[in-house]
Amino acid sequence: xxxxxxxGVATTGVQDVVEATGLSRSSLHATFGGKQELxxxxxxxxxxxxxxxxxxxxxxxxxxxxxxxEFFAVLIERRCTGEFARWGCMFSNAHAGSENGSPAxxxxxxxxxxxxxxALVSAQRQGQLAEGADPDSAAxxxxxxxxxxxxxxxxxxDARELRATVTAAIAAFAAPAAPAARSGQ
Length: 185
Known about the structure:
Elements: H1 2-7, H2 14-21, H3 25-32, H4 35-60, H5 65-80, H6 90-96, H7 103-111, H8 115-125, H9 135-154, H10 159-173
Helix pairs in contact: 4-5, 4-8, 5-9, 5-10, 8-9, 9-10
């Protein structure tokens, strides 16, 4: 997973995987079938171990926009500091790479866009969205924003600038009297 996450599928050869894992080529092929299947398994592992714990928060949290703001605060923190800083997100990297041509990989990538919608439906129910704001469209905007955070952090963007951008984006569809959903809270 880490090898594909950092390098992408196009620049990662089977020999790189053999060296990183200590497994033989025949074991890898017997277990996964080929590099594309191995990549899809790594992407699914990323979902379980890295993405789902982060994306599940706003989906399972009924606070609405504060949950969205918290999601982005954690996302920016993870992307800008620590061991995986400047790696971006394996999903965002896959959207930008040749790996998105596989129908199996596309299915995994498309599934990731659905998680923010639940928080926005909750926000709408609580009167936190501007009148006429559509939770589905707002979720699409936030998914694109999350990909932007991932890609910009990979390029070394400053966390403060990313937080300011997120705050402005959330404010664009928040009701005037909505509780603050700033990415730092």
